[in-house]
# Entry
Amino acid sequence: MSSSIALHDKTLSELAQGLEAGEYTSRELTEAFLARIERLDGELNSYITLCREDALRDADAADARRAAGNAAALTGVPMAIKDIFCTEGVRTSCGSKMLDNFVAPYDATVIEKLKAEGVVILGKTNLDEFAMGSSNENSHYGAVKNPWDLSAVPGGSSGGSAAAVAAGLAPAALGTDTGGSIRQPAAFCGITGLKPTYGRVSRYGMIAYASSLDQGGPMARSAEDCARLMNVIAGADPRDSTSVVRGVPDYVEGLDYNLKGLKIGLPKEYFGEGLSEEVEASVRAAIKVFEDAGASVQEISLPHTHLAIPTYYVIAPAEASSNLSRYDGVRFGHRCKDPQDLEDLYKRTREEGFGDEVKRRIIIGTHTLSEGFFDAYYIKAQKVRRLIRQDFLDAFDQVDVLMGPAAPTPAFDLGAHKDPLSMYLQDLYTIAINLAGIPGVSVPAGLAGKRPVGLQILGPHFGEQTLLGVAHQFQQITDWHRQRPEFGQEQA
Amino acid sequence: MALEHSDVLRAAHLARLGLASQDAEAYVEDLDRILAMVDQLQQVDTDGVAPLAHPLEATQRLRADEVTESNQRERFQQVAPATEQGLYLVPRVVE
# Structure
């Protein structure tokens, strides 16, 4: 092998180059990752299902395609998929007992696109049940550990995807983000994660949590890798009527971005009470890097920031209570034993199939949508949602991007937030972005002891090309994204 | 707006979520605190602000009313808990 970097430490882009140069085959690459997962994941629990046979078959097909001269940019590169995307013939659990026996009969659109590109799917990664959580501790399949510090959470809900990429158990993964579920685990695990604009990536076949907030996106080792994945997965989908019909730029071309003259806004509300000193220090140092490269920085206010969490905890559970009504024990998924009547079938199936956090959100959502409460909660939250969105629209009249921390602290300890409300409050820097529908990326920007710190960069609707360009230029100057945890290195 | 034990049982019933009366206790405290946090919204002046249902304010895209999917009933029923002659089985509803 020509490079001294171990295969599992390479970026997706480097692996694609290595395949193109014939340094290794997709089969060799896939076998190396599968072996590494089998050796190391017992400790992390980042995968729920490993797709060994399918992956090797697809790797062989990718090698044949390359030999025939038909390879696309990412043909033969392996990656992991959050177990929320339906994958034909593979159990798609969504981290829930409810779907423990559900083998998806079709592919999500993004899975179809990745397969058409020739990407090899290694397996399905762990998550908080139905993507409801910020620590991956709400999974029916158990908690995931953070490879940087095994006593810490990887973040959530895309915790398995983040941990797998950080530990070199996949070069990249797909995640989903409803209130921070790509960006916060990316920050906690020292990787790069992009939540695209609402509607930029198809949600068809992506199991619904809160439909006006949910968005899938890439989690990888660099902004460049995220750009390559966006080139494959972005775009309108006739099967998702909420996907946006609008031209898709070449995200890789956008990486060549000139930081000189970039106008950066720092939302003062993102640097206030609750922000840990070590996170603030890393984030401010990162912003200094941009200033040194010719960007200008100004303070901005997003005055409704403090209302984002209350607004989210009306809208998201309301939409969840509706979306999750489909799990009724009739057509697929768990069904209770010996139902006495139809109501007993529904009630016991759902009581047995859902975990505590999911039940909490179904009850809240059902309550707030019920007669006598709907206007006071749901309509009120939708009005405040407009105010939150307007904060961002006003900010982007003045600056090109906003920067701040992705989370108030580095990864917290497993079991640190047993109280649901205290867990919810951890999402104060990520949640407003989903309410506004804008894109955001988290990039590695430092270490607090052993635990990574993420810089969050936000842009206007459909500003992904700029975000990835800005993040990529940061990664040309710094090497935080090149840092790897000690976990799994000695067995390399 | 405080949440009562009876509100939790009512919502659970509306959601067809089995919840024993004694188990509802555990939810009442958590959910009441969550709703107390949500109640901050009541302080906000939203006079003249229209509700925002879609972050891009897009309206639902319509399509022609045409059959685009083939019948895959057998395939989809393979994952069903109980079927017979192409039908989904549930406990008897009408005696």
Remarks:
- The longest strand of chain A covers residues 440-448.
- Residues 25 and 111 of chain A are 22 Å apart (CA to CA).
